Structures
1.
Amino acid sequence: MQRLTNKQVVLGISGGIAAYKSAELTRLLKGAGADVRVVMTPSATEFITPLTLQALSGNPVHQHLLDTEAEAAMGHIELAKWADLILIAPASANLMARLTAGQGDDLLTTICLATEAPICLAPAMNQAMWKDSGTQENAEKLISRGIKLFGPGVGEQACGDTGPGRMLEPEEIVQETANQFETGSLTGKTLFITAGPTREAMDPVRYISNHSSGKMGYAIAEAAAEAGASVKLISGPVNIKAPERTQLIKVESAEEMLSASLEGLENCDIFIAAAAVADYRPTAVAEHKIKKGTEEIMELHLVKNPDIVATVAGSSPKPYTVGFAAETKDVLNYARGKLERKGLDLIIANDVSRSDIGFNSDENAVTVISQQDTLELPQASKRQLAGSLIELIAAQYKATK
Ligand code: PMT
């Protein structure tokens, strides 16, 4: 169940007897590596206590829309943005009706309105309520809007009836949830992804570098692996863990990053350069620590580093090559210049003058530029953006074949 590792799941619980299974569901989701935040409707708390779910999820349980204290800690918009996926289990007939009507009359439905994450429901209700034409119409409308329904199953029900409407078992729901993260759009493809900063040594203890945390590149590597690709992640020094199912190659300098990028390049289908590579390095690395002298000004001589992504784009055979452009002004113009100059197929521009996106933040906002199109992807978590970017890159790559 690797696909759930580090996934941020909002588990919504609505009122129904199957809510007792949500405790086991929370435990299994956590066990599969997901970070789970439980959101309960008022009627769900009649069936199972928030305390149980708090203990099992390891996070506070969210219940009220108009609770200033809870909103200050993590408000409904933050929760909506935080989620990689919203899973509602059990989803009652009433909850499905409210979602269909686009209502935001409690915390859970409001989060569903505010999120851009996929929403999945595990319906649970009496068989007659499930068969009711109103519920069936609601189910169809929800599906047509892209909401996924897991089940319901058929069998004996808590009320003594037998038929469709049983909530799937927690194990089945966890499996279905994990499947949502597997797109298959890059199955059989090999991707090389550069990430993080480079360090250009001056002496044994000092270097020139930048603020890249690697979060953007690592999120892209994770999304690519989830899309079925075989991923080589070439990373400068960062403090985050490599995503599962990726091959991590650790490097320090731009020159090391270049040789790792060129090794096996003939097998690479798509190359994505998310690393913040130092444009220059000291002309020489002192053998011993440079001592402080008496002079007020110290001169440091720099020499240009090789341009990794341009070298890759100029190779033969050339992989589909995607660069990033980190700019602080005139973002789109500079990015278009880099697309041309470096011979790229696609460039992803981001504004690194802002502290809420770009370097070292958990969110980003980008513009994807090709020869033909310009597409803006609004501010979202780097992990969500990475998912969209990978799907977009996969589609563009396929269009060139
Ligand atoms: O790591 P994070 O904290 O998550 O931050 C993400 C990010 C801001 C680093 C990322 O989104 C980003 O913009 N990466 C590219 C940063 C950069 O170096 O941009 P640039 O405009 O200077 O370079 C343009 C492209 O050429 C980039 O794809 C870069 O990887 C590549 N390049 C640059 C210089 C060089 N010598 N070799 C290169 O391959």
Note: The chain has two domains: 2-178, 190-288+295-399.
2.
Amino acid sequence: MQILKMGQVGGGIGAFIGEVHRKAARMDGGIRLTAGAFDVNPQNSLKQGKILGVDKKRVYKTYTEMIEKELALPVEERIDFVAVCTPNHTHFPIAKAFLEAGFNVMCEKPMTLTVEEAEELKIISKASKKIFGLMHNYTAYPMVKLAKDMIKQGDLGKIRKIVVQYPQGWLYQNIEKTGQMQASWRTDPKTSGAAGCMGDIGTHAANLAEYITGLKMTQVLSDLTAFVKGRKLDDDGNVLLRFTKGAKGILHASQISVGEENNLAIWIYGEEKGIHWHQEHPNYLHVISQTAPEQIWKRGNPYVAEKSEAAARCTRIPNGHPEAFLEAFANNYCNFADTIRAKNERRKATDLEKDFPGIEAGVRGMKFIRAVVDSSKNGNVWTKI
Ligand code: NAI
């Protein structure tokens, strides 16, 4: 296996998701952190590089310096891809610059700040012929892949209704006022985008619903609220959904649902059967029907592998030993890295290798944000995605 060299932008000291990317990327031994511009403050980037044990010649003060100096290295020494783990407003310029310089990109969500940027990035990505991954980690759990395969194989019958929720409680008070880093940029339209909660976690819920069912949202009717006084962006939202093929649904996401942790969950009802999956108990998939007792499918068992190759491929340890958040990120990295390797080997990547979210999911996410914001602003009206 070719070991890929990873560069990272973001993930400085005290940052949240950058460390998750580093741990997940190296989980399977096929990726090595080689370079980085880790922090918006150049001095802190150097400090973080030292802590991480990255060769000091490959720790950069800015991402532009990183591009320039990596390009000056012989091709075989350069990073193979960059992971963009910075706040939302910086995704577009950073991803654009790396793609245009000829690097593969793994980018955090939401992909950009606006739909226009997303569409431009799609054109840039296609022209670059580089691999682009988007970190919608929740679609990378084995039991989510099993759910997708069950629906694809017709086990539920035609899908009628999708209910997806993503309540959190951590923004129930104005903690951005205290300077809390993650809250500060997420509640500022300049750095977060047109939506707060809906961009931050509503997009994960929307992506999960589309990924599992294979349906696309066509219209939304939303009611967004900023409950916390002085907050400019939504911290809660309730949305009615219309999908292709006549399915309907409900999505609610919230960051003021006091007491909730990371309670992403989905219920899908077909003409024959239903399923539900809960991110806080991710190793189990429930199958329900009117005519038989509930079934609970458990990750790591041979019957899961028989039903879903994609789930089997994303399973590392035996049943009963929980796999969760870090492994899901690693699953996206695994498929992303294998797709890069396939290209390097001049062979076509398989469908299993290509099973990770990319530029299309990013554009869909941005269109979802625009539609829910417009629907709410225009008096809660049906709005096309
Ligand atoms: P954070 O505020 O904890 O960390 C951001 C880091 O980026 C900091 O180290 C900051 O110094 C650095 N940074 C900012 N601008 C930079 C620049 N120009 N060059 C180099 N470094 C720069 O933010 P957090 O929570 O880690 O979120 C980062 C991104 O990840 C966001 O887009 C967020 O939506 C996404 N995210 C995704 C999650 C998922 O489940 N997929 C979960 C949490 C965050």
Note: The pocket of NAI is lined by residues 9-12, 15-18, 37, 39-40, 63, 85-88, 90, 108-109, 135, 137, 181-182, 185, 200 (CB under 6 Å).
